[in-house]
Amino acid sequence: MPKIKQNTHSKRSHSKKRLSSVSVNTANPALRISKANPIIFSGTVKKPESQMTPMEKMERLNIGISKKDLETLKARTNLDYDKLAKLLSVTRATLINKTGAGKFNSALSERMLGLADIYSYGYEVFEDEESFNQWMFRQNYALGGKTPYEVCNNQFGREEVKNIIGRIEYGVYS
Fold it and tell me: Is the pTM of this model over 0.85?
C-alpha cells in the first residue's frame, strides 16, 4: 500500500517563501520576485498594519498619525490628495495644510490606519504593490460592479474590501 504524504503546510506558506522583505512566489514558473514591504507607517511596532492586534493599533493611534505618515501612505498607494480626501471623508485642504510633524485628529488618524491596514494586507496577498494598487481601481463583481476604491470611504466598505482580499488569499472566487 503506497504511503500518502500529508500536506502539513498551509496554502499560503506552500505557494511562497518569504525572505526578509523579498518574497519569492514558487507557484509561478518564472519565480517572480517582489520587493513589496507591507509596512506602511513607522512606529513602535515593526510589523505590517494588517498583522497588528487591536491593542497595537490603539497604541499607534495614541502616538498619532503625522503628515509625514500621510505622505508615506500617499506615495505607497499612488493616490493623490483628491483621492485620499475622498477615501478619508475630509477636504483636500485638511490633508495639505498639516505640517510634517503635526498630528491629525484621532478620528482621521483611525481612518488613515484603516486604509493602511487594507493596503498592507493587499501588498502581502498580491506580493506586488503596483498590482494591488491597480486592483483597487478595477470593477469587482463581489462589490456589485464597483471598484474597491469606490467603497473604501467608510468602515463597512473597508471591511468588505478586506474580506475580498482574504478570499483572494485563500483562492476563493472574488
Answer: no
